[in-house]
C-alpha cells in the first residue's frame, strides 16, 4: 500500500480506484466470514405428535424433525408423563434429519411434556420443549422402533421425508469457496490498481 504522502499526490481518479478496490476486499472478507454463519443453528420443523395436539393413545415413540441433519452425539430426550416420570425407553436414534425416541409400553394417559436437546449440524447445542395429551394409556405391546402413525383428527403430523433435509456441511463449503474466490480476485485487483497508481503517480 502506498504511504499517505504518496497517495495525497495521486490524481483523484486513481484515489477513487484505490478506495473501490479496498471496499471490494472488505466486502469479500464479509462474505467469507459471515457466509457460514448464515447457516447457523438448525431449527425444528415438526414433531410427532404435534405440539399441543391430543392423540387417542400414548404413541410408541415421539419424532422430532429438523431442517438439517443434527449430530447424533449428545442427543437427549425426556418424555415426562403427568406425574413427571420419564417414560422414554432406550436411547434416541437419529436417521437423516429425524430423531426418534421410543416410549415405554403402557405409559399412562394424560398430558406429556417433551424436553429435548440435540447438537446442531453447526456443532452448537439447541434445545426446546413441546407437549401433547393422550386420551388413553399406551398398549402393553412391544415398543418397536419407528415413528408413531398420524392420528388424523387428533392433530398429529408425520415427520417430514428424509429427502427434505439439506447437507449443511456442503452449503458451508460452497460459501467458503465463493468467499475465498472473491477474496483472491479482490486482492489481485487491489494490487493491480496500487501498482498502476504508484507508477502513474511517479511519472507525474
Structure write-up:
This protein folds into two domains: 4-34 and 169-203; 41-164, Immunoglobulin-like (Sandwich). A hairpin with a 5-residue loop joins strand 7 and strand 8. Helix content is 31%, strand content 27%. The chain starts with a helix and ends with a helix. Residues 142-171 have low confidence and may be disordered. It has 204 residues and is an alpha+beta fold. Helix 2 (12-34) runs antiparallel to helix 3. Strands 1-3-6-5 form a four-stranded antiparallel sheet, with no helix packed on it. The longest helix is centred in the C-terminal third of the chain and has 36 residues, at 168-203. The radius of gyration is 28 Å and the shape is rod-shaped.
Helix content: 25-40%
* Unreliable segments of 5+ consecutive residues: 142-171
Order of helices and strands: HHEEEEEEEEH
Distance between the termini: 19 Å
Based on CA atoms alone, the radius of gyration comes out at: 28 Å
Number of helices: 3
Beta content comes to 25-35%
- Classified by CATH, the class of the largest domain is Mainly Beta
Strand order of the largest sheet: 1-3-6-5
Describe the oligomeric state of these chains in a short phrase.
single chain
